[in-house]
Amino acid sequence: MDLELSKTLQNTVDKLSEKFADSFVKVYQSTGDTFILVEPNNIVDICRYLKEELHYIYLNDIFGIDRFTSEDRFEVVYNLVSLRNREKLFLKVRLPEEEPVMDSITDVWQSASWMEREVYDMFGVKFNNHPDFRRIYMPEDYDYYPLRKEFPLLGIPGSIELPNSTPDTE
Questions:
Q1: In the predicted model, what is the mean pLDDT of the chain?
Q2: How far apart are CA 87 and CA 80, in angstroms?
Q3: How far apart are CA 49 and CA 24, in angstroms?
Q4: At 102, which helix (H) or strand (E)?
Q5: pLDDT tens-digit profile of 25-56?
Q6: How far apart are CA 23 and CA 13, in angstroms?
Q7: What is the pLDDT of residue 1?
Q8: Cα(120)–Cα(134) distance, rounded to whole angstroms?
């Protein structure tokens, strides 16, 4: 690997690629950050290993990306921090447009609960084994996912009841 990684970050990448060879896809850097792309099938084990063995104890964020491509349209990105080693990395998985589903990591980090719900609510990515899987911003019966690229900028007329914005004239 010809990336310029710190010694501890290189150690993390090497250990992950050895332990999870079947799930490890690639490592790359962008804007000074390190990204590790893995298959979604072992995400819980990979996260548990990063937390318990490699000391990435802080889950800073989980967010979704709509790549708007025909293959592996959605990405779920985990922003992880090792306070001990003063390193951060981004763990990424890609999911198909049809039925984007993966396992929840709430057993590893309880704080993942709200973040996974947000990714579901905005992108439609479903998380298996989530302890409280429901929408967080949009109504439960809302049929759309507002951060998908095909969602209209002004919303879908009539898809959600808006409060009365005209003042009462009585």
A1: 91
A2: 9
A3: 14
A4: strand 101-103
A5: 999 999 889 999 999 999 999 999 999 999 99
A6: 13
A7: 47
A8: 8
Q: Give Cα 6 distance to the centre of its chain.
A: 25
**Which tokens hold the place of 35?**
């990204």
What local confidence, expressed as pLDDT, does residue 84 receive? 92
How many angstroms separate the CA atoms of 14 and 132, rounded? 35
Residues 6+ apart with CB under 8 A from 126: 99, 100, 101, 102, 120, 133
Q: Which two tokens stand for residue 17?
A: 């690629």
Cβ atoms 112, 30 nearer than 8 A: no
Amino acid at 42: N
Angle (nearest 5°) at CA 85 between 83 and 88: 70
> In the structure, what pLDDT confidence band is assigned to residue 122 with cuts at 50, 70 and 90?
very high
- Average pLDDT for 130-155: 89
CA angle at 66 for the pair 61 and 69, rounded to the nearest 5°: 145
- What six digits make up the tokens of 31? 């804007």
